[in-house]
Task: structure prediction
Amino acid sequence: MELSKEFKEMNCNETRERINESFDVDFQLNLPQYLDDIDTLVKCCVKNVVADYDLSSSSIIIYGKSIITVMYKASDGSTLSNIFEEEFSKTFDITSCDYPDFAEVNVFTAYSNSRLVNQRRIDVHTALNAQINVFCKRCTHCLSSCENAFIKNREKNVLNIKATGVSSVDFDEVFSLGKNDSQIKNIINTYIDCSVSDKKIIKDKMLVKLDCELSIVYCNESGKSDKIKYNFSTSRIIDIANCLETDYSIIDARICQLYVKPKVNNDNKLCDIEAVGRIAVSYKICSIDKESFSVDSYIPHFKTISQTDKLSIKSNPIYYYDSKSFELTFENDKDMVEILDLNAQIVKVNVVSSTLNCAVLLRFFYLDESSQLCYYEKEEIYSLKLNDIEMNGEAGVNLLNYDFVINNTSKINLRLSIDYTAFLYQEENIEYITDISTDEMLDDSNTPQLTLYFAKKNESVWDIAKSFSTDSKLIIDENELTSDIIDTRRVLLVPGMWGYEYV
Result:
């Protein structure tokens, strides 16, 4: 029997390969000639960020930057520092996707340690963990209608990852101390915080605005340390094909280049500071789409053959966007007399069992009871339950601001404010019909026009109709049912389809 059919095209991005692999990077740092020798190493702080990646049919190469801040004491007792910018790369094989389209790349720092080799060289070892999701665009079709056939459709809200990538925002800022005529002798320490103040998606583009706070501790010409903060904003329009105003975004901004130096002002005094750098903006564009899948079909009085395919989907997504304030406590094994500079950073975010987990890294240097300069670094986890139903998820967290209170000489209470974007979903493999055909006509000539059927609780009217080669609507109308699912054991009247005509 010839069948007239219609099909619906379905386009989606599937996660075809997940890479979770650890690797190490090692650097040899040599002090610039203009800096004095190292007498005592105070700290060696390492920040790692993905700057870019190259994706091919067989591999993905990630390119990263390590921003390494070294602070030390010279032989004359002065405190000096230097920022090193190092590059690293790592290649990962792709085995399950011949034509990958884009990837989501995250690199997390497991640990870092440093070793003072001599007065001018420091060896740095860092253990990293790469978590990569490789996406392939999939174009398939689903049976939408067929002459003489009954088709059962299932509607699903589906979370679709439309695009991911890494872009960059450059800045070049000059600011003055502004307090007095005291000149800068040397810079001791530098921190920079970046937060997303605004994001807006328009067709094929996304506008990202960033608020940045630069914190600098310096030594003046009198030998005393002082601190200054400078705030500035920057923005970038990122080209993203096929994104729409109705899409959602998850954004993470991290510094990947930074160069800070004193600069003479118009009075020829060393009272200005120039900060040049680059911010890596990682983004993920998502949409929530309503999809209809043909999950079952049959043609009355015929043996029906259905061709099927499977699709992995993120179903029933729930969107969250909110702000939250919380407090974390950090304990030090040494007494802290004075905190000279402090920085907090969210270094890792994930969703496990509907719980949003944020790893907060606290770094600061301080004076102990002996007025010795010391460095502190520790990571704590903040967890936020989003839903009582255990679901997987995607999330991004933006650190808005933070401050701290010294609870006692060895304990700090860190207070943070964040906003977060999250999606919870259920991972599901759905089987759908791509085509249908008939094999042979069934011998149901002796089937009565009306059959008594003892239905079980929770039985589907569709399944009953299919087994009797009739129309489920006839069963519903005949028995005055209000649902496709039988709510209790009962007797049903099942009409036949003797008047059914075929073309």
Notes: The mean pLDDT is 91. Residues 472-479 form the longest helix (8 residues). The CA atoms of residues 159 and 470 lie 36 Å apart. The chain has two helices and 20 strands.
